[in-house]
Structure formats: structure tokens, C-alpha cells
Design goal:
The protein is 37% helix and 33% strand. The protein is built from ten helices and 18 strands.
Length: 386
């Protein structure tokens, strides 16, 4: 029997990306189709040019389908942090004596944690456990199947605006997609690429993009905190364009040549070919422009962390992912210095795709494969209980 293929779509701040793939041996991913389409992106939780979205989605999807040699009728869509918000809450459920915990019991726990279930302007897209306990105090990943008189959990719920989903659903319907599942990109990246030990201790995942940056704190299988702001590496390019009176495309090229870890001499320059002319830029000045914006982004990240930690900031590992700051040589080191923490890059362990810009797509497809496996096991369990 041929393996099931999965289609996933990432809504990035500068492009829409689609991957079609399937699970391989030893938890590997076989990429069958991969494509991206640029668009105006989003800022402050809204698309800048809504009319461009369906075209970009359709272009990325059709090109990925051609590469894969198959059509996608079902798709998992990764929503950026600017379209999501997170709520965590501790809840308990008691029974009349010990009983075997079911999926329905867990759903009741999540329903009790949901403070927005009667608000139609928000839609729940994800429910997960941060920490779950049985009546004897035993901590478990999931209580389903255990016998207990009481279950308690710190639930992590992720919501998005219903209006955003309505807009996207209409786009996918017009493109012939039959079913859409929405996931939070920040959760997919954190769950699928951090080790169990890192998640149990708690970790901070910074996802930097072209126009936006998000800060997520994960513990167990859920997010404790999620925040974002509209600053990214597109702003770095804009700074270079303004400071050196450059075309934006030339500023993008210049940005990719900069290495912030170098300590340039006053005579050092960076060369750029523009309109068949070679232009020299003083390295000290270009680095100062870029470093200043990276430091501003670091300051915004620090403010996000203070929103959660207040004055008490326990030690947590920090990771950087996404297609933004991770692409500027030395930006990670500037962030580490400004935040006072060692920061590691987060990326998929996949040959040919082991870079932070692929974290979202591979996180989404790994999550889709796992969720499908859980559904299959659940169907078999119900069959054998009959």
C-alpha cells in the first residue's frame, strides 16, 4: 500500500510556502513537492493586501502539486503567531471512584479550561497538555487509558480570530481544497524539533521572519506563552536602503553580504554590483546600521519575555528559527549578547533542509503525520473495544 501524502502550507510574512511529502523510515520526511510564492505579507495581525492571498496560495499549491505529481485535497495550514493567541489554565476533573480515563474525559478537561467557548469571534485550533497528573500525583503525557479517580492538567489552548479562518476557508474552497486543518506554527516548531528534556524544563523559541518576530515559551506539549511584534529583516533592508540611498533590491543584496561577527577596520568595505557598477560601502557603517536594528528587535524580544516572567526569569534554553535573523551572519550572536543568554539555532534534522527557514514546513508535516497516526490508533482501539 502506498504511503499517505500530506500537504502543508506556511503563511509567512513575505511568502506563502507549500510542501507535499510523506513519512519515510526512522521518522524521516520524503519531500515530493515544495514551492513558494511571494506576496505583501501581514503586519499587526492582518494581511496587507488580502486580494493577493488567494493568488499566492494557488500559485504555491499548484507548483508543489506539479512537482509532487499529485493533487492535494486536504491541507494543514500553519498560522503565524500574529494570528494566534495562547491561554494556559489549570483544571481538574473528578470521578465517582477510579475509572479508566477516556478521550471524552480529556475533552471535558479542555472544555473547562476554555474561557472563550461562548465567544464566536474566536476559534480554538489547538488543545494540549503542559503537565498532566493522576490522583496519585503521577505525571503522565496523557491520562487516556490510565485508571484514576481524578485527573488534573495545565491546559494550553491556542485560538485565532474566526474572521481570519472564514477568509482563508473561502480561499481554499475556491481552489478546490476539501478540508483544512489549522495549526499554530510556533507550537509545531517547538513540539517537533525540541527534545523531550528541553520541553520538560521549558524553552523559549524565537521565530524571526521578514516582517514579524514571535516569542513562544513551551513546556511539555503546550505553549505557556505566545507573543509577537511586527519587526523583521525586511526592516533591516529598509534601513540600508534609506541610509545608503539604495534601491530596495540592492539593499537586500547588501544585507546578505554583511557579517556582524567581524570587527572591521575603518578602511574595510563591502562591494555591491548595481546597474553594472561596483559600489563600495564602508563595512563599519553597514554593520552599525544592521546591528542597531537587530538590537531593537532584541529589545522587543526582552519586553515580550518580561510580559511572562516579570522580574523572575528562570533559566530556560533559547532557540532561534525562521527565515529572518538566522539568515544574517552574526545576528544570532548579537541577540545572545543583548539578551544575556546563549541562543541555539532550531532547524529540522533533514538532509538538504537542515536550516531554520524550513522549520515551519517540516514541523507542520511531522505534526500532521503524528496526528493522523493518533486518529488511526483511536479507530482501531474503538473497533477492538466493540
Amino acid at each position: 500500500m502506498p504511503k499517505k501524502s500530506y500537504a502543508v502550507l506556511e503563511i509567512g510574512s513575505s511568502k506563502i510556502s507549500v510542501m507535499i511529502g510523506q513519512g519515510g523510515v526512522n521518522n524521516t520526511i520524503i519531500v515530493k513537492g515544495l514551492s513558494s510564492a511571494e506576496y505583501s505579507g501581514f503586519m499587526d495581525g492582518a494581511f496587507l493586501e488580502p486580494s493577493e492571498v488567494k493568488f499566492a496560495v494557488g500559485l504555491a499549491l499548484s507548483n508543489a502539486e506539479v512537482s509532487a505529481g499529485e493533487s492535494a485535497k486536504n491541507i494543514v495550514v500553519g498560522l503565524p503567531a500574529e494570528f494566534c493567541f495562547c491561554q494556559s489554565k489549570m483544571v481538574s476533573l473528578s470521578f465517582d471512584g477510579k475509572k479508566r480515563v477516556t478521550e471524552a474525559d480529556v475533552q471535558e478537561l479542555f472544555d473547562r479550561a476554555n474561557n472563550f467557548k461562548n465567544k464566536s469571534n474566536y476559534t480554538l485550533i489547538s488543545s494540549s497538555h503542559i503537565a498532566c497528573f493522576l490522583d496519585d500525583g503521577k505525571r503522565v503525557l496523557s491520562p487516556v487509558g490510565y485508571k484514576s479517580a481524578k485527573i488534573s492538567t495545565t491546559a494550553s489552548l491556542i485560538f485565532t480570530q474566526t474572521s481570519i479562518l472564514g477568509f482563508l476557508n473561502n480561499c481554499f474552497k475556491d481552489l478546490g481544497i476539501e478540508s483544512v486543518e489549522y495549526q499554530c506554527i510556533a507550537l509545531a516548531e517547538a513540539k517537533e524539533f525540541l527534545s523531550n528534556d528541553s520541553r520538560e524544563l521549558g524553552a523559549v523559541v524565537i521565530s524571526s521572519g521578514y516582517l514579524t518576530t514571535s516569542v513562544a515559551i513551551i513546556r511539555g506539549d503546550g505553549l505557556l506563552f505566545l507573543s509577537s511584534f511586527s519587526l523583521g529583516t525586511g526592516h533591516v533592508s529598509a534601513d540600508l536602503a534609506q541610509c545608503f540611498n539604495l534601491k530596495f533590491a540592492d539593499a537586500e543584496t547588501l544585507k546578505n553580504k554583511i557579517v556582524l561577527t567581524l570587527k572591521p577596520k575603518s578602511t574595510d568595505t563591502i562591494s555591491l554590483l548595481s546597474n553594472d557598477k561596483c559600489i563600495e560601502f564602508p563595512t563599519e557603517k553597514t554593520n552599525l546600521v544592521v546591528e542597531s536594528r537587530v538590537m531593537q528587535i532584541a529589545g522587543a524580544i526582552s519586553k515580550c519575555l518580561k510580559m511572562y516572567f516579570e522580574n523572575n526569569k528562570p533559566f530556560m534554553q533559547m532557540f532561534l528559527t525562521g527565515d529572518g535573523l538566522s539568515q544574517i551572519k552574526g545576528a544570532k550572536e548579537v541577540l545572545s549578547k543583548e539578551l544575556g543568554r546563549n541562543i541555539e539555532l532550531l532547524y529540522p534534522d533533514v538532509p538538504g533542509y537542515g536550516r531554520p527557514q524550513f522549520s515551519a514546513l517540516f514541523g507542520l508535516i511531522k505534526l500532521a503525520i503524528k496526528n493522523n497516526a493518533k486518529k488511526t490508533l483511536s479507530v482501531f482501539a474503538k473497533f477492538f473495544r466493540k
